Amino acid sequence: MKNMDLPALEQKIESTLERVTEHRYFLQSVSGLINLNSKRILLSRKALLFLLNKMQLPHKEAHDKQAFMLQEMQFHIHRLETEVAKMKQPKRKRRLQTAQC
Amino acid sequence: MLNKILNPDFFSRANRLTQLWPQLRPASSYELKDKMASHELYLFAAENKKFNIPVFIIPSMINHFYILDLENDRSFVRFLNNSGYDVYLLNWGYPEDHDRHLNFSHLVQNRLIYFLNRVQQFSGSEQMHLIGHCLGGTIATMLAAYDCRYFQSLTLLTTPIDFSAESKFKSWIQKGNVDFDLLQEAYGNVPWPLLHASFLSLKPLGQYRRLKKYISTRMTPAQKKSFWAFEMWTHDSISFRGSSYLTLIKDLYRDNRLILNQFRIDKKILKLSAITVPVLVVNSNDDTIVPPKSSTLKKENLPNSPSVENFLFSGGHVGCLVNKKTQITLWPKIADWLESKNNEL
Known about the structure:
heterodimer, A: 101 residues, mainly alpha, 85% helix, B: 345 residues, eight-stranded mixed β-sheet, two-stranded antiparallel sheet, 15 helices
């Protein structure tokens, strides 16, 4: 290592890092950490939710799905409107469009 | 209020903070045509419009769309404008907390079809050229297989389609044992720092090498500006919508359902044979994110497409959009190909 020039050193470090990031043990350790952190977040969230429910305070968890469904509904309504508008077009024009496909 | 402050989803809040920062924007001027949920539809109008048929671009969901229009002299969108096309570009935007429920079925059947209808209304053209980059290309392929009537051609830029190809991502998913369901449940949307770290780990010394090159090379101010524009974009990541991420990992990376014609959009099974338009596939030989084998499509994959052309260029994953060389070699080829498909009507 001592007598190595910079490019050689870079190459050595890079190949070591490449090997480490591909190694099963390293990947499993990182996965373990990610999983543990996910559990930690879930635990604190569930504890908080439990507390809020006990205190009968509102929380946004329950509204998340509703907000999402509302947005989806908007898209769906627009889509249906467009389809209806297309169906209202004169038949000849519609046939032409289908022929293009 | 208390819940909001104590929300453990740190990354989601951090992501929202980034919205307050001055955002990097596309270099060209554009018009916001529509906004729905967190998505925006932009029009980059051609000064000398030659073709009535517009181009609709679906960018990747992981990074920002402005890579397609990074700088005045490095802009794929501007090139298409100069070739005579109006370009409609979808900006996915930052995911909201409730976007954790958004999956590919919602994206394709509701959201993208909605935007396609809007493009039809704004442009007055029934059909359009569809271009997808990276994961945007995967979604574009799903969209074309779901309803091909909207399109006259499909262009895929460094797009993963065949997930059986060996890549670092795939090996990480196989060798590691991240519980993705748990991750999604905990975070909602998959946090961008996690995604960003995984991208940086693909080339462990990539960042260092780029900085070293920046310091050791005598650069003009324009080159320096160009360097930082790209660096800023590289680090400007977006969190991934939770349910979509689960589908990406399980149905695509693990089960490779799209190419095997088993991918589901709601109750409909997508068949690539439903793609009946010409397809141009652009692969890069030095792509660590999407290896060429993963992005290559053959005629047997798309039996009902009139033509499937693959073009391999030399460069990395986003090289097709920012590389100076590809502006001369690749972009004119794409423009010629699009024009040849215009004439087919």
